[in-house]
Amino acid sequence: MRIENNILIAECTAYDFKGALERKKVKDWLKSVSAFPNTEGGTIFFGVGNDASIVGVANPQKDMEFISEKINSHLDPIPVYSLKPVETSDGKVILVLEFPVGQQTPYYLSLDGKRIAYVRRGNQSVPATSRELFELVLKGSNRSWDSLVSNELREKHTFNTLEKEYNLRSGSRWEESLLSSFGLVTEDGHLTNAGLLFADRCPVAQSRVYCTKWHGTGKTDAVNDSEYQGHLLYLLDMAGSFIKANTAVRWYKLPDYRLNLPEYAERAIEEMCVNHLIHRDYSELGSEVSINIYDDRIETTSPGGITNVFDPVRLEPEKIASKRRNPILAEVFSQLNYMEKRGSGLRKIQDATALLPSFKTDKKPFFESSREFFYTTIPNVNYGMTDADFEALVDSRQSADEKTTRKIYPEPGEFTQKIYPEPGKFTQKKVGKTAQSIIDAIVADSKITRKGLASLLGISENAVKYHLSTLQAREIILHIGPDKGGHWKVVVKK
């Protein structure tokens, strides 16, 4: 608690001020006793006016006894709390009633023949909506929406897409027992909600994505739009395909190869789609993930925010606690190598975008959240650039790359067993189709792996290794950093 010149910090989501202890109107403050543990915790200050001025209480001991008696009589279950008197510098006494985040939600207030759970919104304590109450029940039972058991039987559903994706991306072979291990099917053969979302014929109506390409930078005229409904892997594939079809890749012709200058990083787009599909609130019926493509940005919105305010607030990835609304969905996508368990997806979106050739610091992706929605905005790194800007960009990259790739070759006669090529010898021949595809893939996703390239191009990992080695020898690409965690860079030589 902070007191400055006998003035407390303003009343807010975490604070509630009561100038006096209302003994005849206990509901006035008991609502907050229910709301704080149901939301993010908080503190009620008795003896503090609405204007945050400290007025004090007359009889601290009797007031504390009355407060404890009313909480124990009217709250179910009784929340964990601490109640203590605090003396201010001018001798006044205030009572501080503090609540941590509750673990046995919902905390109901039983009064006047009614049983209501309250939540905190801004500086008010209000009755929880039906959806908020559902979330509180799940939280109190230590369960998530995706873990709830449905009436659908395993024998009526197939998981062919999940099996195929697992075999392709995990490096292991699919087994029927994985459905149970992942939490998609129960021991008695029923699908959980997570199982429904991965089943080939997903019956969850709100498992949808709306995609729209807009003309200009606002919602004026729609150029193209599509609605997709189905299992999560289908939605991920279709959303990515829609974005790819409605965004552009500028290219610059160099002597040996073509340098792509994409508007968006493929890895950033994939991370964005995965995050919004995994962490959205599926308990809200009639909802969907919305992807809006404008000339200067892509905005993605999904139901279920991570803050307690109605207006969107900007978030910093490093300050967001890794809290999974749907842990089973997150685990399955982690097993498919679409995401990491430590929850670094938002940072990956920013890092992947920063490695694009056209990136500037003012084009950094950002994230916002309100109580109802989560938002991701990825700027178009090429937006507003002229032909002269692109020419200057290539020139500046060439200058930097010449310093990076300069090599010292051995003096003639120093080695007799090998003949080393002269600098520039490799650049006399243009790269082939496969090598160019590898260059394009590296520009789109500079952290793509050898396995990822093999899967993308439909060739063996040994073939990928050969082409990577050849491109490195020709000083067309560089690998920066460690084998794990580093990234590729395409060298510019005009």
Can you give a write-up of this model?
- Helix 13 crosses helix 14 (461-473).
- This protein has 14 helices and 23 strands.
- The chain has 494 residues and is an alpha+beta fold.
- It has helices spanning 27-38, 60-74, 130-140, 160-169, 177-181, 193-198, 232-245, 266-279, 327-335, 345-354, 387-405, 433-444, 450-457, 461-473; strands at residues 3-4, 7-8, 15-18, 42-46, 75-76, 82-87, 93-99, 108-111, 114-121, 124-127, 149-153, 190-192, 208-215, 221-229, 249-253, 258-262, 289-293, 297-303, 313-315, 366-369, 373-379, 477-480, 487-490.
- It has three domains: 3-140, Methyltransferase, Cobalt-precorrin-4 Transmethylase, Domain 2, CATH 3.30.950.30; 208-379, Heat Shock Protein 90, CATH 3.30.565.60; 397-490, Arc Repressor Mutant, subunit A (Orthogonal Bundle).
Characteristics:
Arc Repressor Mutant, subunit A; 3 domains; Heat Shock Protein 90; Methyltransferase, Cobalt-precorrin-4 Transmethylase, Domain 2; alpha+beta; 23 strands; four-stranded mixed beta sheet; 494 residues; 23% strand; seven-stranded mixed beta sheet
